[in-house]
Amino acid sequence: MAGKEATVYILDLGRSMGEKRHGRDQTDLEWALEYVWDKITTTVATGRKSALMSVIGYRTDKTDLGGIMEEAEGYENIRVFSKLKQYFLGDIRNLQEHLKPSKTNNGDLLSALAVAIHMIDSATKGTKGNPLKYERRIIIVTDGRGEMDTADLDEMASKIKDPEAPFEIVLPGVDFDDPDVGYKEDGKEPHKAKNEYVLKRFVEDCGGNFGTLATAIDQLQTPRLKETRPVHSYRGPLTLGDPENYEATITIDVERYPCTMLAKPPTASSFVVRTDLAGVSDPSTESSATAFGEDHPMMDLSAVRNQRVYQVESIEEPGTKKNVEMDELERGYEYGRTAVHISESDMNVVKLETWQSLQLVGFVKAEKFERYLPLSRANFIVPQKANQPAQLGLSSFIHALEDAECYAVARFVAKDLKPPLLLLLVPRIEPEWEALVDVELPFEEDMRRYKFPPLDRKLTVSGKTITEHKDLPTSDLLDAMSDYVDAMDLSTFGRDEDGNEQEYAKPEDTFSPLVHRINDVIRWRATHPDPTLPIPDPAEILMKYSAPPPELMSQASQQLDAVKKAADVKKVPPKVKGRGKRQRTDRDKPLSGLDVDALLGNPKRVKIESSNLIPSFKQALLAADDIDAIQEAADDMAKEIRSLISNSVGDSAYGRALEAIRVMREELTELEEPETYNSFVKTLKDDVLSGKLNGNRRDMWWRIRGNRYGLVDSKRSAFSPVTEEEAKRFYHV
Amino acid sequence: MADVQDNRPGEEEEEEEEEVDDSSYKTIKDAVLFAIDVSPSMLEKPPKSEDKKAEHDSPTSAALKCAYQLMQQRIISNPNDMMGILLFGTEKTDLQDGDSTFQHCYLLADLDVPSAQDVKRLRDLVNNEEDTEGILKPAKEGASIATVLFCANTIFTTKAPNFSSRRLFLVTDNDYPVKLKADKDTAVTRARDLYDLGCTIDLFPISQPDHSFDRSRFYDDLVYPTSPSDPDAPVAIPTTTNVAKSGEGISLLKQLISSINSKATPRRALFTLPLELGPDLRIGVKGYILIKRQEHVKSCYVWVGGEKPQIVNSSTTHMADDTARTVEKTELRKAYKFGGDAITFTPDEITKIRQCFGDPVIRIVGFKPRSSLPIWTNTNKSTFLYPSEADYIGSTRVFSALQQKLTTSHKIGLVWFIARRNAAPILAALLPGTEQTNEVGDQTMPPGFWLVPLPFADDLRQFPAPPEHPLQTTDALRDKMKIIIEQLQLPKAVYDPSKYPNPDLQWFYRILQALALDEDIPDQPPTDKTVPRFRLIDKRCAEYIEDYGAEFTMALDKQRHSALAHRAKHVSQKRAGGAAAEAEHRKPAKRVKKEVNVKDEEGGAETMTDQRMADLNNSGQISKQTVADLRLWLGARGQSTGGKKAELLERVQGYLEEKGL
C-alpha cells in the first residue's frame, strides 16, 4: 500500500528537557519520548524495508554529524544517531541508551533541521541527482527553550516546499500554545514564547503540522488501521439465463472485492530456550539465526522443528501399531474407516466439473430473509473498470432490487473446477457509490436440525399447552423488560465530531481489542525489555464497548431495578451443582416416574460386576450409606480396572479402563471422597510405569495423562488436600 | 512422547490456544446403535398397490432403509462417529464374535466407524427383495427386550467405551414386548444400567393400522427424559415423536427418516455462558452451532505397502532446531517477530495479555433498531442461543421476555462477547429468532437468539475506487429490470436451504463410495439443484428481457451522448459496424472477443485508429486492452508510455477527449 518513505526525528535533548513541569511525574523528555517511541515502533513493526528513518539529537553534549555535513562549524551540539536506514529492534535498544537529557542547553534546532534536510535529500536522490519518489518527513520534538539562528529561515522553507521533493514537517512542541485545542501554557517564559512564535510561522509557512505535544500523545490512543489494497476474487460475467442456449439473456461484467475481512493479530511462533549456549561457530546455531535475518541472531532461543511419525494398525498383531516409511505413502481419502487410495493423477475424479460463473438463480423478499443465515464474510460486486455498459447494467440491477425490496440468489464458481456456492446479492446504495454486496448461503448439509421447546408457551408430556409457568415471563416482567430495552437505546446515544446525535458504537468506531492489544504490547516490550516490569493494562479505547456506557446505564437504573424485581433470578450456589451425598429419591427417573430402586427392593449392597462395570459401580455407590461401603466399591472397581489393563491385548482394553477411571474420579469427587480416588490413581501410576500390570503399559499412562485423569486437587474438590501444584507435578514421570 | 487424548475432552482445557473456534465441538464423538425389531408384524408387507404413493415397505425394511441412509449421511457429516446395526428377534444369533449369550440378536454391522463393506452389505440387504442370507427370518419366540438392552450395554462398553454420546435407536411396533411382570422388571433394570452407563434410548415407535403404539404401557418405564451426556440440555419434546402409521398419509419411510434426521447428530452446546442484561442481572445461556459449512474430508496419507491400502495416523514431536533434542510442550516459548528480532513473553505474560479483557461473558451494551444490522456487516456464521437454568434459576423466563420484546419492537441487542478464556473479545448483535414450523407442525427453526458477529473498523475493507462519472440507471430501465425480478421469485419468495444440497459434497461422496466399493464411477453428476432453471427463466422472462434490452440500448446511447459532445459520428458508425444494437445486451461477453479481433482485420495499420480506440472506450472494453497495446498506441501518438495500466488508460482517455472523440 504505502510507498517509500524517509523520516528523520529531531529530538531536543537539552538540559531543560530533564525537568518535570506542570505537575507531571515524568520529565519533559520522557513525556516526549512516549510520542517518539510510539511512532518509531509502529514503523519498525511493519518490517518494511522501504521505511527509512534516522534520529538526530540536538543540544547534546557531544557533536557527531556522522559525516553528513562537510563542515562542522555552526553544527555544534548536534548528534546524528544513525544514517537513514530500516530500523530494527537492536537500533531501538541502542537508541534508548542515548536518549537522555544532556548537561547543556547549547545547540540550534534550525541547524539540526538543516542536517536532517540534507540527510534526506542525499538519501532520496537517484543516480543522476534527480529526486526519487519518496515521502519525506521530519518530526521535531522540542520544548522551544534553545537558541535559534533564524537568518536562513526563508531559504530553508523554500527548500522544504520544493514541489519536486517536498518535505512534511511535524512539530509537536512541549507545552506549546495551541489555540485549535484551546491550550495556553501558564507563566510561559518570554524566550520560549518568542521561539514558539517563530516556529509556528515557519512550520505553517512550510505547510507543516504545528501543535502541542499533549494533543499528539492523545491522538496516539486511537488505534491505527492497516490499509490493504483491494484485490478482486472474481472477474467475469453476472448472468441471467443461459447465453449459450437461449436468445434472451442478460450479462453484466463484474468484479468482486472484499467488503469485510477479519483482521488477525500477529501470530507468535514457537521457540525453545537454548540449552547449548556454547560455540557461535556451530553450524546449527546459524540455521536458527536465519529465521530472523542474519544481522540479528536471537540470543537464547532456538527454532522448533516438527517431526512426524507415520503409523498404521498392524494386521498381524491387532491392537498394536507399526511405523511406516514416507515413500510407501500415497494420497487418498477416508470413506468411513475404509482407506480409498487415489493416485496423484486421478485426484481430479472427485472434483465436480464447474466453470467460472456468477449466475442468477432467483429472487427473495428482503423482509422474509432470515438475517442469521449467511455464514461468511461479505464482498462487494462492482462493474468492471471503465466498462460503461456494465456500469449501466449493474446500476439498473442494484436499483431494481432496492426498489422491489428483494435480494438475489446466485450460483457462484470463483474459478473453473472450484466448488459452486450459493450467494445472496444485496443492493447497497451510498451517497458516493453503489454496489452489490454478497454473502454465502448455507446448503442443506450445513443446517443442523436440532429442536428446542417454544419460549412463549409450555407443552406438557400429555400434549397440553400451558401459558403460565415459572419458565414463562409474567406480564410484569414483559412490561419491565420492554421499558428497560427502550431506556437502553443506543441509536442516538453516540455523538459525531460536531456533537450531533448518531448511532453509538458503529463498526467504524470500534477497534479489534485483541489485534491492537497484541500489537501494543509487542511495541511496548520493544522499548521496555526489563522482564520485571508488569505488562500494562489494555488501552482504554479497546475496553470502551465492553460494558454499557455508564451515563446511559445510570439513566436506566430504575428500569433495570424493575426488571430485576420482576425477574427474580437466583444464582444456583455452586454446592448444589455437585450432587454431594445423594439420596435415592433424587435419582433420575424414567418418563413414567417409576422408582426403579423400589422395584428392586432398595438393596443395601450392590456387587460390582465386570460385565456391567460402570452401572453396577454407580449403583453400588448409591446404595452405600457409609464410608466403608464406598471404599469397598472403590476397591472392587480398582481391581477391575487393573485387570482390564493387565489383560489388554495391546491397547485394546485401554479405552474401557480409561472410561472406568473417569467415572470413578467423577463419582468419588462428587461424593466428596477425592482422597479415595487419589490413593488409587497414585498406586495405579506406579504399577503402570513399573511394569507390574503384565508388561509395558506406558501407553496407558500417556492416555491417563492426556485426559488429565490424575490427582483431584483442592481447586476441583474442597475436600482434597492436594494442591494444584502437586496435581500438576503428578503428571511428570 | 506426545500426550494421547481420548475422545472425551479433559477438564483442564485452559492451556489450549484458541485457534479454531469450534474445535472442541468436533471432539464430541457420537456412537449410534440401531436396534431393529424383526418380527412377523414388522416384516409384513403392505398390500400391493398401483398407487405410487402407497406404502411399499414393511416396517423392518423401512427401518433398514433409514439406517442405510443415515449411515451414508454420517460418513459425510460425522466421519469419525460410530454406527452399528443390531437386528433382534431373528432366528439366527450372531454377534460377530462367536458368543451366543444374546439369543436372537443379530449384529448386522458392528458398532464402529462404518467401512465400505458395511455400506455395501446394508445396501444389498435393502435393495434385494430376496433375503439371500436368510437374516430377516423371525424367531418363533422373539427376543427378550432385556437381552437386547444388555447386548447393547456390552456393545457400547467394548466398542465405544469413552464416547461422550452413545445412543440406542430402537425401532419397534411392539408396545408390550414381555409376557411376565418379572420380565418387565428385568428390562427396566437393564434400561437403567444403560442410563447409568451414559447411554440414551431413543424410541422410534411404529403403529400398525389395527394397533396404535402406546408408550405408556411399557417404554415410558425404560426411556429417560434427560440425556446423561448433556443433562442440562433442554428436554426434547416427547409429544412431537411421530407415531408412523403404515398405509396412510406420508409413507412410513418418510416419517421415519424425518424423525430420525432430527436426531442424526447429538445436540451439544458449544459453550455455557452468563448473559448479562445489566449490572447484577445475569442469566444462563448455552450456545449451539446450527449453521456450519459442511466440508468434505481432507485428503490423507494412505499406506500402500501392504495387501490393502491402510489409513495412516501421524503424530508430531517437537524438536529443537539446534540440537535435534526432543522438546516437551511445556518447554515451548512464544515469540513475535519484530524489527528483525524476536519479542518474547513468558507463558504467564501471554496469559495476562490475552485474558486482560475479563471473563467469558455475553454482556449487553445496549439496544439498536434491527435496521442497524445490514447484511454487509456480516463476517462469519451466527451462533444460536437458548436459555439454561443450570446456573441461574429464572433464566428461561427472562430470556423469553427479552426475546419477545426484541421481536415485537424490531430491535437487536449489542453485546460484548468472549466465548472462552483466551478467546478474542468481539462485538455481536443479539438477534431474536422466532419459531418456524412446516405444514405438519414440525419445528424447522427453533425460537431463541442468534449471536451475529459484527465487524470492527479493522475488519472493514475499503470500497474499490469507483470510476469518476459512472453511468447511472434511468428510472425506466430500473422498472424494466424490476419486472424481471418479480417474475423470478423463488417459491414463497424465501431462500430455503433444504432445497439445495451441496452439489460438490454430493458428487465427492458418490465418487468416493464408488471407489471404496470398487464400482464403476458414475459419469453423470447427480442433478445439481443450484444450477439456475434456464428453461423456466426463458419461459417466464424472455419477453421482459427483450424489453429491458431495448431500453438498455436506448439508455446507453443517450447517456453516452450527453456525456461527450461530439458523438453523432460514433453512434452511426457503430450501427454500420454490424454489431446489431439489440444483440448488445445479450452477449456482450462474447462480443468482446470479436471486437478485439477487429484490430487485425484493419490490417496494415500498426496500431488501431483513434476512432477504434474511442469505440472501445465508449463500449467499456478499453480496459481489456493489454498494456503493450496501450503503450504502442500512445507511443505512436507521441504520448508518454510510462506508468501503470490505470495511468495509461487515463492518458488514452485524455487524448481521446482532447480530440473530441
From TrEMBL, chain A:
Basic residues: compositionally biased ranges: 572-582
**Member of which family?**
Belongs to the ku80 family.
State the EC number(s).
3.6.4.12
The UniProt record lists the keyword Repressor:
no
Q: Which organism is it from?
A: Decorospora gaudefroyi
Positions of the VWFA domain: 6-174
Q: What class of enzyme is it?
A: hydrolase
Known InterPro entries for this protein? DNA_bd_Ku70/Ku80, Ku80, Ku_C_sf, Ku_PK_bind, SPOC-like_C_dom_sf, VWF_A, vWFA_dom_sf
Q: Which Gene3D superfamilies match?
A: 1.10.1600.10, 2.40.290.10, Ku, C-terminal domain, von Willebrand factor, type A domain
Cellular compartment(s): Chromosome, Telomere; Nucleus
What residue spans carry the region label Disordered? 569-590
A GO biological process held by the record: telomere maintenance
Superkingdom of this protein's organism: Eukaryota
GO CC annotations on file: chromosome, telomeric region; Ku70:Ku80 complex
Q: What reaction(s) does this enzyme catalyze? A: ATP + H2O = ADP + phosphate + H(+)
Protein name, entry field: ATP-dependent DNA helicase II subunit 2
The protein's job, in short, is: Single-stranded DNA-dependent ATP-dependent helicase. Involved in non-homologous end joining (NHEJ) DNA double strand break repair. DNA-binding is sequence-independent but has a high affinity to nicks in double-stranded DNA and to the ends of duplex DNA. Binds to naturally occurring chromosomal ends, and therefore provides chromosomal end protection. Required also for telomere recombination to repair telomeric ends in the absence of telomerase. KU70, of the KU70/KU80 heterodimer, binds to the stem loop of TLC1, the RNA component of telomerase. Involved in telomere maintenance.
Recorded GO terms, molecular function? ATP binding; damaged DNA binding; DNA helicase activity; double-stranded DNA binding; hydrolase activity; telomeric DNA binding
> Where primarily located?
nucleus
Q: Which UniProt keywords apply?
A: ATP-binding, Chromosome, DNA damage, DNA recombination, DNA repair, DNA-binding, Helicase, Hydrolase, Nucleotide-binding, Nucleus, Telomere
Automatic annotation (TrEMBL), chain B:
Main location (coarse class): nucleus
Name the Gene Ontology biological process terms: DNA recombination; double-strand break repair via nonhomologous end joining; telomere maintenance
Q: Which Gene3D superfamilies match?
A: 1.10.1600.10, 2.40.290.10, Ku70, bridge and pillars (4.10.970.10), SAP domain (1.10.720.30), von Willebrand factor, type A domain (3.40.50.410)
- Annotated signal sequence range: none
Which reaction(s) does the protein catalyse, per the Swiss-Prot or TrEMBL entry?
ATP + H2O = ADP + phosphate + H(+)
Q: Where are the residues of the annotated region Disordered?
A: 1-26, 39-59, 570-605
| Superkingdom of this protein's organism | Eukaryota
Task: Locate the coiled-coil region(s) and give their ranges.
Answer: none
- Where do the SAP domain residues begin and end? 622-656
Ordered alphabetically, the record's keywords are:
ATP-binding, Chromosome, DNA damage, DNA recombination, DNA repair, DNA-binding, Helicase, Hydrolase, Nucleotide-binding, Nucleus, Telomere
Q: Where is the composition biased (Acidic residues)?
A: 11-22
Output the Gene Ontology terms for molecular function: ATP binding; damaged DNA binding; DNA helicase activity; double-stranded DNA binding; hydrolase activity; telomeric DNA binding
Keyword hit for Transmembrane helix: no
Residue spans of biased composition, Basic and acidic residues class: 1-10, 45-58
Say yes or no: keyword DNA repair present: yes
NCBIfam families from the UniProt entry: ku70
Functional description taken from the UniProt entry: Single-stranded DNA-dependent ATP-dependent helicase. Involved in non-homologous end joining (NHEJ) DNA double strand break repair. DNA-binding is sequence-independent but has a high affinity to nicks in double-stranded DNA and to the ends of duplex DNA. Binds to naturally occurring chromosomal ends, and therefore provides chromosomal end protection. Required also for telomere recombination to repair telomeric ends in the absence of telomerase. KU70, of the KU70/KU80 heterodimer, binds to the stem loop of TLC1, the RNA component of telomerase. Involved in telomere maintenance.
Q: What is this protein called?
A: ATP-dependent DNA helicase II subunit 1
